[in-house]
Amino acid sequence: MFSHTRLRCSGRDHGGPHHLVVAMPATLLLFAHVQLDTTGDFRRDAPVDDKQYLLDSLKPAESWRIFRIMAEFVDSIDTLSRVERAVSVFGSARVKPEDPYYEMARQLADRLVQAGFNVITGGGPGIMEAANRGAADAGGVSVGMNIQLPCEQKPNPYANISINYHYFFIRKVMFVKSSVAYVVMPGGFGTMDELFEALTLIQTRRIKGFPVILMGSDYWRGLLTWLKKTMLAEGMIAQKDLDMIQVIDDPEQAVKHIERFVIV
How many domains are there within the chain? Predict the structure, then answer.
């Protein structure tokens, strides 16, 4: 027996929540509702267990998860479609307010807003908090795209638009889709992931090229040396690939570089 139903997607649009009308067996429908309602509670203080390994848990029999994935995409696209000329700022969640990189990120966001740009971050503490803070204090749009993690990440209070994600890959798509430039500050694996994904997509012409700026030259020196003396020297990349990266420590100069490529 099949039943038509409306599945609510938690969109924040002008007309209210989105609904998807689908037909499915009544027993499967009940199962889908139960699963969708009970898998969303992934608290920061929750114990680490197999539930956090989202990709490992995707099985053919669990195709109902597509509704949660669709809901995240719908919510994100709807919200971010109203945020124009956005620059994404990446960096470590572990940087403290007294760190010079924190102040550099705050000043950068302030200058970006004054130049007519909006700011997007991963929504967490550290560098992300600093950039959201600088943008909000300057009266600009300050977007925090928070990811639900079992440790470390929690939303900072300076994002005036906040989006919560369950899946990393959706968040990564939305960063690329919504940005006119990337500014990458010192960070760990997550920061490197965002940096090299953007470079790969530009290199392979899957997206239009945009400015990719590294701030904090002392931090990046070792990586850049390795890229030149190992990866470039052994023919794994071309010089034009390295030329996609600009190293700029001064917030004012970083904004001017972005302005040369982006019409505000």
Answer: 2
How far is it, in rounded angstroms, from Cα 20 to Cα 38? 19
CA distance 67 to 9: 8
- 215: DSSP letter: -
Question: Chain-centre distance of CA 117, in angstroms?
Answer: 17
Contact (CB, 8 A) for 42 and 136 = no
Please check whether residue 77 is in contact with residue 178, taking contact to mean a CB–CB distance below 8 angstroms. Answer: no
pLDDT tens digits for range 53-105 = 666 666 665 778 889 899 999 999 999 999 999 999 999 999 999 999 999 99
| Model confidence at 7: pLDDT above 90 | no
Single residue among 77, 104, 128 that ends a domain in this structure: 77
Rounded (10°) angle between helices 100-114 and 251-261: 40
Q: Return the H-helix or E-strand segment holding 259.
A: helix 251-261
Between the CA atoms of 82, 87, 92 and 98, what dihedral angle is there, to the nearest 10 degrees? -100
Among 26, 54, 77, give the residue marking a domain's end.
77
Please spell the DSSP secondary structure of 156-208, one letter per residue. Answer: -TT-SEEEEES-HHHHHHHHHHHEEEEEE-S--HHHHHHHHHHHHHHHTTSS-
For the CA atoms of the chain, what is the radius of gyration? 20
Q: Could you tell me which residue, 96 or 5, shows the higher pLDDT?
A: 96
For 49-103, what is the HEC assignment? CHHHCCCCCCCHHHCCHHHHHHHHHHHHHHHHCCCCCEEEEECCCCCCCCCHHHH
Segment 125-182, tens digit of pLDDT: 999 999 999 999 999 999 999 998 776 568 899 999 999 999 999 999 999 999 999 9
**What range defines the domain where residue 66 resides?**
2-77
Q: Which residues pair with 183 in a beta bridge?
A: 89, 213
